[in-house]
Design a protein that fits this description.
By secondary structure, the chain is an alpha/beta fold. It contains ten helices and 15 strands. Strands 3, 4, 5, 6, 7, 14 and 15 form a seven-stranded mixed sheet that branches. The chain has a six-stranded parallel sheet with strand order 10-9-8-11-12-13, sandwiched between helices. 49% of the residues are buried.
Length: 328
């Protein structure tokens, strides 16, 4: 038997998430069984637990798009019993039972060896949020953005992706302007390396097609008017990486920044990201992330805390990252 968060949706009980003790026989098919030691609560997991977004494709479902743990049984040559592994995305926790459980059974190709620089706890403090932040950084670099080009704006900065993006970019020598709706997070964002903190409201309402040209690069987790305003205030040739929709899925923009300032908008997806880029991103996290910052960025909780935490995360009341200790 193992403990898990289980989301059910049926006419009798409606949409509900609860803590359950499940028989191992209920695990889905897969080549590798992992004893999960740590997982996380991402934005998407909070949507899955609360039912506030159509994240889950089948029911009952164990949410959790991230996991770290040890191989307990393997039918694949790449993994042996006792190997430390890590998983982000691939639809796990959406259409295949995920990481918010003491056990998971998954396909070998979805797993990565846990980089030796990280404990499972640290890997989950990074999680999909940190992995996505690094995908944004890699995209900015591939497009040629350098620290000397000017400021990088990071929106939703006190959240998971935003916190990791702020600390990674600052450590790489970029001047980061963190945008946050939480004035009380200013000191925290400065401790992660933000050179300046801007109030969220400055970007959240409808703006002009083109504004003052300010940013060389951007990491946007908010979408909607914020993304439109970020695009409108890019320097000539600036690069915007768009990865989130915390403020809305719409994109009420004009083509002006693209056709008049040569701005590039790069979409970032962590779920189906090819394996080679995943390995590159985790290699760069191992070399470029200041691990001593992870303690400030993350809070550790147990499975029982999640049901109460999920709605708070969606309301923007959870700072940084949430690590779930499955043995707590
Ligand atoms: P968090 O909830 O940790 O952070 C989101 C942050 O966005 C909040 O902390 C808040 O920051 C800000 N925010 C929240 N609501 C609003 C609002 N209505 N308007 C403006 N800002 C708002 O989530 P994550 O960091 O885990 O994820 C952020 C986004 O990125 C989500 O939409 C998520 O789905 C997406 N994502 C996408 C991935 C991909 O593969 N493309 C992978 C991972 C995440 P503050 O308080 O500082 O203002």
């Amino acid at each position: 038997m193992f403990k898990a968060v289980l989301v059910e949706n049926d006419p009798a009980g409606g949409y509900r998430a609860g803590l359950r003790c499940l028989d191992e026989a209920r695990l889905p098919d897969g080549e590798v069984t992992v004893r999960v030691s740590h997982s996380t609560l991402n934005y998407k997991d909070a949507l899955a637990i609360t039912g506030k977004g159509p994240v889950l494709r089948t029911f009952p479902m164990v949410p959790g798009i991230d996991l770290a743990g040890t191989v307990e049984h393997s039918m694949h040559a790449d993994y042996a019993v006792g190997d430390a592994v890590l998983l982000n995305g691939w639809g796990v926790g959406e259409r295949h039972w995920g990481g918010l459980a003491q056990k998971a059974r998954v396909q070998a190709e979805w797993l990565l060896p846990l980089p030796p620089q990280f404990s499972p706890q640290q890997a989950m403090a990074i999680g999909t949020a940190g992995f996505t932040a690094m995908l944004c950084v890699l995209a900015l670099e591939r497009a040629g953005v350098e620290p000397a080009d000017g400021e990088i704006v990071v929106t939703g900065a006190a959240g998971g992706v935003g916190s990791l993006a702020t600390t990674i970019l600052s450590r790489l020598g970029f001047s980061v302007v963190a945008v946050s709706g939480r004035p009380e997070a200013t000191e925290y964002l400065q401790s992660l390396g933000a050179a300046q903190v801007l109030e969220r409201a400055t970007l959240a309402t409808p703006g002009k097609p083109l504004g003052k040209a300010r940013w060389a690069g951007a990491v946007d987790v908010v979408g909607s008017h914020t993304l439109a305003n970020v695009c409108a205030s890019m320097q000539y040739g600036g690069v915007v990486t768009a990865c989130g929709l915390a403020g809305g899925m719409d994109f009420p923009a004009t083509v002006a920044p693209f056709i008049l300032r040569g701005v590039t908008l790069v979409g970032i997806d962590s779920v189906m990201c090819p394996r080679a880029r995943r390995l590159e991103a985790w290699r760069r996290l191992a070399s470029d992330l200041d691990l001593s910052q992870l303690a400030a960025i993350s809070t550790e909780v147990g499975l029982t805390d999640l049901l109460e935490l999920a709605p708070r995360l969606l309301n923007g009341q959870v700072r940084g990252r949430v690590v779930v200790d499955l043995n707590r």
